[in-house]
Every structure is written in C-alpha cells, then in structure tokens.
Sequence to fold (428 residues):
Amino acid sequence: MIFAFSAFLVFLAIGTPIVFVLGIAATLTLMLTQPDIPITIVTQRIYDGLNSFTIMAIPFFIVAGSIMDAGGISRRIVEFATAIVGWIVGSLLMVSVVAATGLAAISGSGSADVAAISAIMQPELRRRKYDIDFSAAIIACAGSLAQIIPPSLMMVVVALVSDLSVGAMFLAGVLPGLLTVPGLLTSAYIHARRGGPQYREVQPFTLQRLVKSFWAAIPALGMPVIIIGGIIGGVFTPTEAAAVAVLYGLIIAMFVYRDLKLKQLPALILQAAALSAAVMTIIGTASIFGWLVASANVPAHLAIWIKTITDQAWTFLILVNVMLMLIGMFMESLAAILILVPVLMPIAISFGIDPIHFGLVVVMNFAIGMVTPPYGITLFVASSVAKRNIIQVSRRIFWPWLMMTSILLLVTFVPEIGLFLPRLAGLL
Fold:
C-alpha cells in the first residue's frame, strides 16, 4: 500500500486530474506488486463501483439542479432573500448568503450555486462599491453549504459507501447547515459595520413584498420538501426521489415560471451529462483504490495504530477533523470520501461514534475544504465570476471560514445537533 499511496501523491503533485490519479495509481500498484492478479480486475472493480441503484440518484440530482438553475429559480430565490434580509446593514452580502443557502436546498451542487448567485449579485455589488474580494469569499462559503444541506450529492456518496440511510444523512445535515447561516451572516454584518456608507444603503422591510416574493418562490422551495418528505415517508427511494425531482423541476421551470424553453433542454442535458460523467468516473476509479485499501486490511491496521495513540473518542474526532481539513485543501472531495470513509468509518464505530454523526462530520470538513486554498473549488468559481485573483479573495476568507469551522467543532462534540432530526423521524 505504500507504493499505491506514493504513486497517488506523485501523480497528484504533478497536476494529474484526480480521476486519472486514482486509476493509474491503483493499476500500477496491481501490476508491480501483485502480478498474479489479472489486470482485468480493474474493469471489474470500476463496474462494481458503479453497479448500484442508489448511485443513480447522483446524475438525476445533477439534472434536476441544472433545470432548476436555468428555469428562473435563482432569480426568485434572490428576490425572496432580498425581502427577508435586504433591510439589514450590508444588505447585498446578507442577500447573497440567504440566496445561496436557498439554492443549496435545490441543486445540491456547491460550485453551481456559487456560479448562479455570483452571476446575479456581482454586478450590483460592484455598482454599490462593495468589497468584491470579501463578497466573493462569503458567496463561496455560502455556496459550499450545498454539501451539507439536502439534497447534497456528497451525503448520497457517504451513505452509499457506508451503507447508511440516505434519508437519515439528509436530515442530519439540516440543522448544522442552518446553524452555519447565522455565522456567515454575522461575519458579513461585522464586515459591513466596519465599511463605508455604501453598506448602509438598504431596502425597507415590507410585509407585502415578503409575501409576494415568498409566493413566487414557493414552487422552487417545494423541491427539497418533496425529496426529503418522500424519502422519509417511504413513498420512494432516494433514486426515485431524484427522478421525481427532475420531473418536478421540468414542470416548474417550463409551465409555472415559463423561463425554460424546450430548445434549451438539449444543452442542459448535455451539460448535466458531462458533469455526471465526471462524478461517476471518479466513483468508478476510486472503487479500485478502495478495493486495494480493503484487500491490504488497512482499516484494521490503522485502527490498531490509532488506538495506540488514544482510546478516547473525542481525541479520535480531533485527529480526524485535522486530517480531513488538511486533505480537503488539496484533494477533490468525492474522491477523498470514497477512499477515506471506508477506512475511517469502522474505526469510528469501534469508538462508539454513531455512523450518521461521523458521516456528517466528514461532509462538513469537505464542505470547508471547498473554500480553503489551494484546492477550494467554490473559491475558484467565485473568484472567476468576480474577475478577481484567487489569492486576493483568499485573503478575505478568514472570518467566514472561522464561522464554518466553529459550527463544525460544535457539531463534532455535540452529536445531537445532527442526530436530532433523524431520531425524530424514526430513522435511528
């Protein structure tokens, strides 16, 4: 396994795409260290890694998110967010955070949310002379909540590799995700209070505007209710829920809002297919690497080693948080989950840690990793749309990042925050 991890790090360091890193490192390890095993095992493992009914939820959720984003959903979410928080100092920052959170509950894709909200908000942020670097940083952080708030694609993958309930994982992310929002709003407010008069230009709160914008946003906000309610209520499986989400998105976008035209569908489907292919390929190639890890009995050896360091669950959780946060800075989240969760989950269970709670901790760490340089995919997207250098934006990420990390630590050591809703729903 030393050779496998060495090859993995070398290829990653020279800039090889993660999908090729996983496949090449595993294949080379098999060829050079286990020549008696036929190389056809590679294709077999890729097939087995993708041969799952549950995993089909991922491309369906991606398609649903693409349809909802293109169907006027983003604009109506922004209008509703403006009605809620547009009267507070730093109003545009507040609206950005709330809108990104609302969109996260629809698409499940952090980078897509950040791109959509940035495209809508950045022109107005520039016009009113807001700090563009901080604005991009706060939007990147808010967009990463899509990994925590259902229907999170990351939650689906964690549930898949750990044999956990997707519905339980979805519910576990609700309260931590919602707790993070006030933290981001607080960091935005503190920044705005220290800023100039441009941050004090606000829109007065009116009940009429709130009701009107809420009424317009109801069809969009209905998607997470249908998905989560359907799964928990046993009406349909996660995969069926994702397919229902696609149908619901089409109806809303084409016949209710009428912002999506039939001629736009081919391009949307191709875009979603390309993204789905990338995600599914990562899952397939990661299954080879995961099989190597399992066949070398790495989880058992690692468990023994960790227990020589500590026999306390809280110490183990601290070690895991530090490790995952560092890995999230350099590695694609889905690939890291597919490699690490099968290794770490049995160890966590041996310490008496609830697997749903541990899965939530993993997801929250990688959500933070999405805004932490040098990898920081949502940070890259936000910087790109804002037309700012990634280094300039990174310098303004500290306070929002600190808020997200504080909520992570709170959830880590108060498991009931994440487990309350799954228990209430009878899923634990």
User: Anything to note?
Assistant: The chain has one domain: 53-280+298-424. The chain has a mean pLDDT of 83. The longest helix spans residues 265-295.
